[in-house]
Write a structure and sequence with these properties.
alpha+beta, 2 domains, two-stranded antiparallel sheet, 4 helices, 4 strands, rod-shaped
Amino acid sequence: MACREVAPEDIIDAARTHVAAADAPRYLPSLAKWLAGRGWEKEPPPKRARRSHANGRHDGLPRSNGNKVDLSKVFFGLGGYVEDDNGRMVRGGA
């Protein structure tokens, strides 16, 4: 039905724009709802601002991949190990 009102290419381009603009496409409305609501005529949802460095966490815990606490480094630290310049855990800073 939507293709009777507008060219299919316009609908597909608008859908791509909406998916690219979404933080998580799984939270977008279903295609049927989007088409019924004439989603191709609406502005895409704005992206939420990302927090700086490790999602704003400043708890001092060692992290890997920017977000997850690296538990191995936490426990090695409790055992007296420290991280050297190469990222290896060594006993007592040697």
